[in-house]
Specification:
301 residues, mainly alpha, Rhomboid-like fold, 2 domains, three-stranded antiparallel beta sheet
């Protein structure tokens, strides 16, 4: 009987002779398959398995640590693209802005809402089932030649989103950050519906005020120097009062309240069941906003 060959080959490359074993699975590996380990070398499969078993680092709020504020970039891009669309087709504002109830007359003009209206008129807004307005209005802004601010409306909002969004996204992680932003936007739209259903409103301000409230709650949770944070919050509230004369203060306040509530749940949820409590709080707020919306629309019609 011939003696057994003493030549050993790589388990991935059978034609390559090698004499080094993976320290985890004990299989032979060639230089191309060797991966440096704390002691010795590992094969590619063992390296992948080890990476899956390593617990990913999390922030104090349970979010994955990310170096690139991707969601903030996307939100800014969506707002800018929507603004370009407005410039090309100005009727987008009337079609997608936040609106509870209007009447459209035979002449195409807009009229004050009344539940019983004469022939030739048509309902417009949430009373007509245009539910998308609750969110689409938060991605539109005033045209350059309209309102008090014109083009500064989107410029100021995007500057605030850039400064606040990057910080908050890095702490909350992308999924929680998206939930915060959208629920803040919805909170602003719903308060507009409740208090000023006949007002056509646009702008990301509700979501921005929600981010401002989130920054305050997160700063307290993380033990930041509250002197600077309190000054920021005082300025935000002062702007809320001043802007009430020429902007939708209802949208600002609604976003502020919704963002604060969501972030309180994110910040103080028990660690052992953090994700469940955070998701439950978001769902509960969403249900509350939906109930308020349906109730108001039902009352209007």
């Amino acid at each position: 009987m011939e003696p057994e060959s003493a030549v050993t080959t790589c388990y991935r490359h059978p034609k390559v002779e090698c004499h080094v074993r993976c320290i985890r699975c004990d299989r032979y590996i060639c230089p191309d398959c060797m991966r440096e380990a704390a002691v010795g070398h590992q094969c590619p499969e063992c390296v992948k398995e080890g990476a899956r078993s390593v617990r990913q680092a999390r922030t104090a709020f349970g979010g994955r640590i990310t170096a690139v504020p991707l969601v903030t970039y996307v939100l800014i891009a969506l707002n800018v693209l929507a603004y370009v669309g407005e410039l090309v087709r100005p009727e987008i504002v009337d079609r997608f802005g936040m609106l509870g109830a209007w009447l459209v007359g035979p002449d195409g003009g807009h009229y004050v809402w009344q539940a019983v209206y004469p022939p030739g008129f048509a309902a417009e807004g949430l009373v007509e089932g245009e539910w998308w307005r609750l969110l689409t209005g938060a991605f539109l802004h005033l045209p350059p030649t309209e309102g008090t601010f014109g083009i500064l409306h989107i410029v100021m909002n995007m500057a605030a989103l850039w400064n606040l969004g990057r910080l908050i996204e890095s702490q909350l992680g992308r999924i929680r950050y998206v939930a915060l932003y959208l629920l803040s936007a919805l909170g602003g739209s719903v308060l507009v519906l409740l208090l000023a259903p006949e007002a056509l409103t646009v702008g990301a301000s509700g979501a921005i005020f929600g981010l401002g409230a989130a920054y305050y709650v997160m700063s307290r949770r993380l033990g930041y120097d509250m002197n600077a944070v309190n000054r920021f919050m005082a300025g935000l509230l002062l702007w809320l009062l001043i802007s009430a004369a020429f902007t939708s203060w209802e949208g600002h306040l609604g976003g502020l309240l919704a963002g604060g509530l969501v972030t309180l749940a994110f910040a103080y949820a028990p660690r052992e069941r953090r994700s469940l409590v955070q998701a439950g709080a978001c769902v509960a707020l969403l249900v509350l906003l939906a109930v308020l919306t349906v109730g108001k629309v039902t009352a209007l019609t």
